[in-house]
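Now for a typical sample entry:
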Amino acid sequence: MNGKEITPNTLWLIMLMAVSAAGAVCGALYGGSETGEMLISYRTHAPLAELILTSFRGCFIITAVCFLLGFSAAGQPFEAIVPFFFGTGVGTAAAELYSSAGMFPALVLILPGAAAASAAVAVAARESMRMSLAVCRRAFSKGDYSPADIRLYFQKFLIITAMSAAAALIDGGGAVLYSLLCKRG
C-alpha cells in the first residue's frame, strides 16, 4: 500500500461516512415527492444569511447530540446511528429536488454542503464514540481520564463546530451559484 497504512481512526471515519451514505440512499428511496419546487424557491429567494444560519443550525444540532452522547458510557450504539439519520435527511432532500427539477439542482443545491456537513457529523460521531469508550472504561474498569482529556474533547468539538460553519458557508455558496446560473440560463 505504498507504505501508507489505514489507521483505526481513519477506518472509523470511513465507516461512519459509509453509514451516512447508506442513510442518504435510504432517504433517496423514501423521498421523491413533488415538494422540491418549494425547496428550490426557498433556497434561491431566501436571504443568504438565513440560508447559512439554517444550514448551520441543522448540522450543529446533530453534532451537539453527538457531543452529549459522548458523556454516556452506553452512548456508542446511538452515536453510530446519528450519521445514518443525517444521511437520511440529505438523501430525502436530494430526491425531492431530483424528482421535481432534475439532477442539476440536487448536485448544486444539496450535495456540496451536505458532503461537508456529513464529514463534520462523521467526525463528531467518531470523537463522541472515543469519549464514550473512555467514560465506559472509567465506569467499569477503573480506567482514568484526566481533565486534559475532557478539555481536548471540548476543543475537538469546537473544531467540529467550525467544520459545521464551513459546511453552512458551502451550502450558502451553492444556493448563490445556482441562482446565478439560473439567471444566466
Observations:
- The two ends are 46 Å apart (CA to CA).
- Residues 9-184 form one domain.
- The chain has a mean pLDDT of 88.
- Residues 103-141 form the longest helix (39 residues).
